[in-house]
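INFO  loader      accepted 1 record
INFO  loader      residues=286
INFO  predictor   begin
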Amino acid sequence: MKGFDISNSNEFSKVPKDLFYFITNCPLQDLGFLDQLKNDQYLVSCNSVYYFKIISQKNIPFVLRLKQNEKSHFGLNFSEVREIKNELRSHSSFSGFHFHHGGEANTSETYLSAIRKLKSLITELGIEKPLSLNLGGGFSHLSLKEIDEVFSYAGQELKGHKIVIEPGRYFTEETGQCFAEVSDIQNDGEGLIVNLNVSRECHLKWSRINQIKILKDTDSVNRFTGKSMRVYGNTCYEDDLIAVIHHPHKEEIAVGDTVVLSNISGYSLGWNTGFNGIPQIKIEFK
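INFO  predictor   done
INFO  writer      dumping tokens
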């Protein structure tokens, strides 16, 4: 890991100051923290032509953020880039391009397509200097074989340029766990409906929970079994659904049991909040 993707001065205040930083979606008026860095420590990603026009007047190294598809509200489309191509070719602080993929429903073709578009655009613009080319994030849906395919293709098609990726979720997702207590159970005939004392809306946003381990730490005789469990958060929000888990062995569960939720994303730590009288969850690093 070489650094972080930073969106504002508050995020910057929470990370080490001796790495490299991709500055994305940061309000122009909030860029004062760049004074704490050397010019070779960061790149500012321009999300619009207007942002580019302002940044290009300053001594700030920058890249252009590109749309992978027209549905995304992040970045410039290719016609906008063509309109400023002369300014890009002559600007000493222009350092490359940055893709945003508009979601996480990505496949290897998402990145292979981006690489082809980048190669074509660089050729069309007539840019000969080495560039920094950020392929973005969303790699957690890809297998190691698919990631290797993407990197091999990038090395072949974008030879001589620096390739950057943002695989935060890919490396951190499986490290997080959440401990919760069962507060209520019902059986609706199709399976169990289990309420916990934590909430997706408050504590578990952007986590893709794929496993629930039951710690039978109560001596209750009222234990339930079911072919599946629909696990909900303890808020008044009807759609506070944490996970749907299928248990082929009909594992028993009781009110008061502790359950361990796996695959908690680092994003959930940032979302951690209170709602409907439910407090923030306690966070520990081990």
